[in-house]
Design a protein that fits this description.
4 domains; Beta-Lactamase; binds adenosine-5'-diphosphate; 50% helix; alpha+beta; 652 residues; five-stranded antiparallel beta sheet; six-stranded antiparallel beta sheet; Helix Hairpins
Amino acid sequence: MTSDSSFRNRDAIQAMPVVAMALVVMLLGVLLWLLHRNELEEERMSLIKDILWVEQNVHFHLTSDAEKLQQIAVELARDGIGDHDFRVKARALIVNSPEFERVTVRGPEGTLLVSSPPVEAAATTDDPGRWSGAFTLAKAIGRVAYGPPYVLAGRGMVFEAHVPMFAAGRFIGTVAGVFSLDLLITHQVPWWFAGKYNLEIVDGNGTVLAAKSTLPLSDPGPSHQVRFEPPGHGLMLVATVYRSETNLARNILAAAILGLALLALWSLWAVRAHIRRRLAAELALRAEHGFRKAMEDSLTVGMRARDMEGRITYVNPAFCRMVGWSEAELVGAAPPMPYWVPEDLEHTYNMHRAVLRGDAPPNGFEIVFRRKGGERFHALIYEAPLIGADGQHSGWMASVIDVTERKHVEEQARLQQEKMQRTARLTTMGEMASTLAHELNQPLSAIASYNTGCLNKLNSGTFNAEELRAALGKLGVQAQRAGQIIRRIHDFVRKSEPNVAPFSMNEVVTDTIGFLAAEARKRAVRIAVEVCPANPVVTADRILIEQVILNLARNAIEAMGHTPRLERMLVAEVAQTDDEVQVRIADHGGGVASEVADKLFTPFFTTKDEGMGMGLNICRSIMEFHQGRLWFEPNPDGGSVFLFTLPRRRTA
Ligand code: ADP
């Protein structure tokens, strides 16, 4: 899969939760809307149902009231319109049906005959517009007829219902009930209806004639109206729903859902931004990794990382090529490592432990490793602490260089040079010896013959003193000649005059020991130079003193050939007394055996196969030439210490 398509997939996956969340919000919105609509519908249905019920109820009451009026009308027609009788009946009716404002009886012409309660003087305006319509209609149809609403002074809106009276088939007037609209709805509309709805009676123009409400109608809901018949005349019953608090709760709920959805969307967006950042970091990391891998693969130096316990945590391809084991075989391996040399296991372990302790030589160290095939090779190792991202020291990283080839070449060169030096020395020695022999031959053989001649004379007994004196004189001349020859050779050997000048002993010891660093490393000898803080100065031939130090130090290194590797230590130390400067070269070699101790400084004494045995002898001569001393002592830590002193140059 290409990275392009994988990124597209990732984008799609990231977009999915956002889309899902948006869908959830949308569906929730639809659900809320449906619920709301349903609720409105239900509200509307129950409004219609309820108002119809109220209308029915009022209708039923008015019908039953009309029947009661009818009853009175029948009784009046039958028994005559007796004033007292009528009032009793009318009061009973008003008490039982509180919506009755009053009950009146009119004659065949419409004249008001009687009223209960009686009509007061102030309200006696008997406006025919209020009743004549209903009166006429009742007379005409012979049934109850209702009049239009009008204002009855002090009593509010009322309407009348006229019931015709017939006596022996003749119309004799009407019994009319005056109904108060207010009282009608006050008594006939139940409390639960008034709790839910605002009920009004309005006329054809929309004017409110009467109302029953328990709450102020600040936020009207849906309303429904039905015709109020009887009494008709365009009157309507209008019910309006009070807005309930459930709306508030629902609004809060909807707002909460919306808020939560927005929060979820925001957090999704934040997560997405975070993922994008991570992806960018991952990409950068991958590029970095690729770069590092290319770099590692191109390295010819072996790299090996170990944790604090010494277990291998990483090797690069160059290291694997060097030792021949694969990365899988090496990573996780604990000491002893497969590439350690069995015969030098102890030394390798010691080095390993020194590295883990942090005591690895800062300039690197050499060690012998083996390849998988068994072949040995010299490795030069530099160790450095491995510091993790958290700043914690987590192990050690080593760079490993195969120096076998280089060492081989160096060794060859050294052997070659040594051979040449030896040859040169031997040639010089041989030449010197043959010259000496040749030159000395003549005077010596002359001496021998004079000697023989003298002896012969003495043995013959016939000699005179003169002869002998002459012979002995000549012998003496020959002996002097031999002495001259030897002196000449001596002069030749010491051709140049020593070049004496003041110098710092610290400096000379440090420089000279420095010459031997390579050789010491090769022989795994560590070197320590301890200079004297007073920095003493001597006056001597610097080159000759360097020769002495070189000789003593080289002897010390050679003496440690059989010392265990870790103990191979050379210490060169400069010290001073009142009038002398002292240099000590201490080793941990085998020391000087007592049987050879007094021969050490004699010329040509050596215990080495390729030694000349001249070194210490010459050193001692050089010291004596400078009024110094050279001697040796056993080293208290094992081995021996060679010391020399030179007179200290005093500053004026
Ligand atoms: P060469 O080094 O050629 O043998 P030297 O005169 O320098 O000649 O040394 C003479 C001998 O003294 C050596 O062969 C060795 O036996 C002994 N010798 C010199 N230095 C030491 C030393 N540091 N430890 C033990 N023996 C030593």
